[in-house]
Automatic annotation (TrEMBL):
Classification via InterPro entries: AdeT1/2, TRAP_DctP_sf
Name of the protein this chain belongs to: RND transporter
One of the Pfam families matching this protein, by short name: AdeT1_2
Gene3D superfamilies membership: Bacterial extracellular solute-binding protein, family 7
Keyword set, alphabetical order: Signal
Species this chain originates from: Acinetobacter tandoii DSM 14970 = CIP 107469
C-alpha cells in the first residue's frame, strides 16, 4: 500500500506543470541589456508566467543578430526581439512594422490588440520544416523618426543622394531607401546610430527609445533635427517553441501582453518627452502627404513582393481609417 502511494505521489509530482517545464530559457534583446525597459518588462512577464505553469530564465542580449543565431542553434526556447527581424518567424505579426502602416500610438494600440486576439490564433503559429513557432506577445517600442544631420533635409526630394542607415536584415528598408534615390548603408542595431554619430550616414531612422542610450544627439550636433513624422512603428515580438512550454501557455501570455498595453504606451510617451524640443522639426501639410503617399506606394509594392502579410495590411488600413477617417487613403482601394 505504501509503495503504491509512493509511486502515485511521484507520478503526480512529475506531472505538475512547474516541474515538467522547468528551466525554460527565453532570450531578450535590449540595447541596455538588463537595465533596459524591454528586459524589465520581460522580467514582469516571467514572474506572471509562473501562474501559467512555467519557470522562465531570461538571458539578456545587446546584439540582436547574436540572439537570432543562438535561437536557431537551440540555445533559447523563445525570444523577444524587434518585429522587423522576427518577421522571418511569423510574417503576420512581423508586418505590424510595415512602412507607414502605423502612424501614431492610438493606431498602434488598436493594431496590437487585434493581432493578439484569440480569433487570430492560427495566424500566430508558423511551421517551418520540423520547427513550430508561436507568437506569445507583442510589445510596443515606439514610432521611428528620421534623424537628420542637416535640418535642410525637410522634404522627400531632399533625401536624394543622401546616405541612410538601414538594417541589413530588412529588405523593406533597403527597397524604400532606393525608392527615394538615397544610398542605403547596411547596418545592424548594434552600430546603426554609431554610423550616424561618426558622420558615415546623413540620416538614421530610430525610435525615441534609442535617443539617449545611443546618444543620437551627438550626431545631430547644432544643425541636425528629428523629423517629427513617424516612418514606421517599432514593436517587439515574443516568439516561442510551443512544445517547450505548458499547453495553452501562449494564449495566456498574449492576454497578459494586451493587459500591459496601456502601461507600455505610457512608457513610450514618457521616453518621447525626453527629446528636447529644439531638435524637433515639423513638416508642413504638403510634405506630410508626400511622405504618406510614398510610404503607401512602397507598402503596397512590398506586399506584392511577399515581404509584408496582405491580411495585416488590410487590418492596419482599417485601424488607420477608424482613427483618421478624413485621410486621403481611406477612399482608395489597394490595401
Amino acid at each position: 500500500m505504501k509503495k503504491a502511494f509512493f509511486v502515485l505521489s511521484t507520478a503526480t509530482l512529475f506531472n505538475m506543470p512547474n516541474l515538467a517545464h522547468a528551466n525554460i530559457n527565453v532570450c531578450v534583446f535590449d540595447l541596455l541589456a538588463k537595465s533596459g525597459e524591454s528586459y524589465k518588462f520581460l522580467e514582469e512577464w516571467a514572474l506572471a508566467s509562473k501562474n501559467w505553469g512555467a519557470n522562465i530564465d531570461l538571458t539578456a542580449y545587446k546584439d540582436e543578430a547574436k540572439l537570432d543565431q543562438d535561437f536557431k542553434a537551440g540555445k533559447c526556447d523563445g525570444f523577444y526581439m524587434t518585429s522587423m527581424r522576427a518577421r522571418n518567424y511569423n510574417k503576420f505579426a512581423g508586418s505590424i512594422d510595415a512602412l507607414g502602416g502605423v502612424p501614431n500610438n492610438a493606431i498602434a494600440q488598436k493594431a496590437i490588440t487585434y493581432v493578439l486576439d484569440k480569433r487570430n490564433q492560427k495566424r500566430l503559429i508558423t511551421k517551418s520544416g520540423k520547427e513550430t513557432y508561436e507568437v506569445a506577445g507583442i510589445g510596443q517600442i515606439g514610432p521611428a523618426y528620421l534623424f537628420v544631420r542637416d535640418k535642410s533635409i525637410n522634404t522627400v526630394e531632399k533625401l536624394n543622394g543622401k546616405k541612410i542607415a538601414v538594417m541589413e536584415f530588412d529588405q523593406a528598408q533597403k527597397i524604400m531607401v532606393k525608392r527615394v534615390n538615397a544610398v542605403p548603408v547596411m547596418s545592424e542595431i548594434s552600430n546603426f546610430v554609431k554610423k550616424f554619430n561618426q558622420n558615415e550616414v546623413d540620416v538614421v531612422p530610430a525610435p525615441a527609445y534609442a535617443f539617449k542610450p545611443l546618444e543620437i544627439y551627438k550626431g545631430l550636433g547644432n544643425n541636425g533635427a528629428m523629423v517629427n513624422f513617424p516612418v514606421l512603428n517599432v514593436t517587439a515580438d515574443l516568439i516561442i517553441r510551443p512544445e517547450q512550454f505548458p499547453e495553452g501557455f501562449a494564449a495566456q501570455s498574449r492576454q497578459w501582453f494586451v493587459r500591459q498595453l496601456p502601461k507600455s504606451f505610457a512608457m513610450v510617451q514618457r521616453v518621447e518627452t525626453t527629446i528636447p524640443s529644439k531638435y524637433r522639426m515639423e513638416l508642413d501639410k504638403d510634405a506630410k502627404e508626400k511622405y504618406q503617399k510614398l510610404l503607401r506606394d512602397a507598402r503596397m509594392d512590398l506586399t506584392q513582393q511577399g515581404i509584408y502579410d496582405p491580411t495585416m495590411m488590410t487590418v492596419l488600413k482599417k485601424a488607420r481609417c477608424t482613427i483618421e477617417r478624413t485621410n486621403f487613403e481611406c477612399s482608395l482601394g489597394g490595401e
